[in-house]
Amino acid sequence: xxxxxxxxxxxxxxxxxxxxxxxxxxxxxxxxxxxxxxxxxxxxxxxxxxxxxxxxxxxxxxxxxxxxxxxxxxxxxxxxxxxxxxxxxxxxxxxxxxxxxxxxxxxxxxxxxxxxxxxxxxxxxxxxxxxxxxxxxxxx
Amino acid sequence: xxxxxxxxxxxxxxxxxxxxxxxxxxxxxxxxxxxxxxxxxxxxxxxxxxxxxxxxxxxxxxxxxxxxxxxxxxxxxxxxxxxxxxxxxxxxxxxxxxxxxxxxxxxxxxxxxxxxxxxxxxxxxxxxxxxxxxxxxxxxxxxxxxxxxxxxxxxxxxxxxxxxxxxxxxxxxxxxxxxxxxxxxxxxxxxxxxxxxxxxxxxxxxxxxxxxxxxxxxxxxxxxxxxxxxxxxxxxxxxxxxxxxxxxxxxxxxxxxxxxxxxxxxxxxxxxxxxxxxxxxxxxxxxxxxxxxxxxxxxxxxxxxxxxxxxxxxxxxxxxxxxxxxxxxxxxxxxxxxxxxxxxxxxxxxxxxxxxxxxxxxxxxxxxxxxxxxxxxxxxxxxxxxxxxxxxxxxxxxxxxxxxxxxxxxxxxxxxxxxxxxxxxxxxxxxxxxxxxxxxxxxxxxxxxxxxxxxxxxxxxxxxxxxxxxxxxxxxxxxxxxxxxxxxxxxxxxxxxxxxxxxxxxxxxxxxxxxxxxxxxxxxxxxxxxxxxxxxxxxxxxxxxxxxxxxxxxxxxxxxxxxxxxxxxxxxxxxxxxxxxxxxxxxxxxxxxxxxxxxxxxxxxxxxxxxxxxxxxxxxxxxxxxxxxxxxx
Lengths: 140, 633
Description:
The complex is a heterodimer of chains A (about 140) and B (about 625).
Chain A: H1 2-13, H2 17-38, H3 46-64, H4 87-111, H5 115-135
Helix pairs in contact in A: 1-2, 1-4, 2-3, 2-4, 3-5, 4-5
Chain B: H1 6-21, H2 30-54, H3 59-64, H4 70-90, H5 106-126, E1 129-131, E2 137-139, H6 143-146, H7 149-177, H8 185-207, H9 215-222, H10 241-260, H11 264-271, H12 274-299, H13 311-335, H14 351-365, H15 384-387, H16 391-424, E3 429-431, E4 445-447, H17 450-480, H18 486-494, H19 501-507, H20 532-538, H21 544-569, H22 584-587, H23 589-593, E5 615-617, E6 620-622, H24 624-632
Helix pairs in contact in B: 1-5, 1-7, 2-4, 2-5, 2-7, 4-8, 7-8, 7-9, 10-14, 10-16, 11-16, 12-13, 12-14, 12-16, 13-17, 16-17, 17-18, 20-21
């Protein structure tokens, strides 16, 4: 799943808030697309992917409210992760990405001087944590 | 515990009444007879109050209005006769009642319980017709069912049945009291008089009997629930199938009130957020998906004879419809992906109940008794042998799905209306970076593009349509399987636009007020007697109904004369001044709601003035502007 790995790498590499926010927007976009695409792949995981998608959509909108996010559209990265045939592996990877995204956003919220950025990062971090919680393989 | 229904209360009350009747022929203490007489008065009055709701016409109107049909008049006659019967029994001093004696007095205990339950039944009906602080009716979801022709027929039959028993009881008490010197003469006379009036009331019922109540009418009437939100029951781990179904019913009942309460639409459009709507749409998709899984599982189970030939096909069709609805709700959720509102948070009042619904449906579908949507709680599907080992349990399961999808359809429709309102008010936003490039917006969010909002509304309409279709499929399955929720289908049929008795009659010539021809105009040579009642008595007629009507005419005449005097003394005449129908009577919600009893046209929706829809109160068409004037008075 190179798309997810690349996204994690972008998140790790983001060194300033605008960069992190842009990466977060794209990460939420990836999570949203991957979850929506996966809903149909397992009856048992339909609800998990559906609610993860809802949380990812909300997280992305929260990021959009951050004053430090560039108004220009971000990078056009591929969000197609349907090539992964093992749904559990995919879910693990998405949960990992969401967990790391939440951590980075929470950390950014703590360090941010702008109230608008802080609020946006906190709200988005909560949504990322929610995605991670829903898709985690084990009971938290 | 299931929600209290009218059927529960009336059945229990009837059990006590029958038990009291079963004591007929046994000796009773004088004190018991005295107290029983008063309770019979209460029972009779209680029964007459049901008729107040069914036929909300005064005796004056029954006499003077020529657009009422025979059975409406008969119902009013029966009601007034019952009130006459009650009058002589209820007002008696209660200080000698024998409620608290030991051992308990069986006759009194049974009658007291019957009277209490009968009153509780009517109170239950009235929970659907509350009024706001201004006295305006607040109709809830069952209001239309209660005022439908089938339920009115069933209620009339129920009242007539109770009346027969009360009449028998009164006859027996009257006989008991006659030779007993310890029973005050006033009580004995009251009982004898009441017996006569009760017989008259029963006769009026019989004479005016219209269409008989069918078994389906009675079942629907008994299914009317109390319109108070039951307490929320958060899911517990390890609930049985029956408990899960019961929990689903509780959540559905709560959501029904949330979704359909008067003003809910305005509230939803004001306080709901995009996050709430997205979550609700997602929840709807999950509910439909889980329903599909269970329905398919039932349909594919060859060992389960759930309803005879064709049942599998019905289940399969319902499963297909649920799958389609799930896909449509996913479309709605996706429609919210890039749209937001000025505020965030899960603010929808029914979020917790929708969550409970999802958990319980999931626990019906999967083997984990503590299932949640978390991946960590993933579990395989339940085996049908475990979920529905017999037809009865399969019906319970179908009932749970039926309840869930039915309320989903109602919540979805409420959401659609609220979203339409929000879009019209331009209160939906999109991130600037997601807007088309030609949008030059110097903010982080801009107004959502008309194309995007139109797509969202299209998605909602498709989802609502698909959910309605799924409900129709489940209606059919529920009726075929005799599921506990089959009344939902019956309720819809009762208020469907198909011609009902009320409408049929409305369209008929009898419903139209007849034009008075010149030939029928009263001639001035008629000499009116001082008292109509006296004049009727002078004819020697033993007909109590005639005497009762005559008395009403006298009262009406007195009232008219008083009003005429008041009007003539008024210096500022106006079209509404002195109007006798502007008081509480005109605002009585039960009266307004009861207008579509088979005896009259179906009640139009009652709306607030200025809302644009026709305003109707107490059956009198009123222009909204004038109604505003009326309310200021």
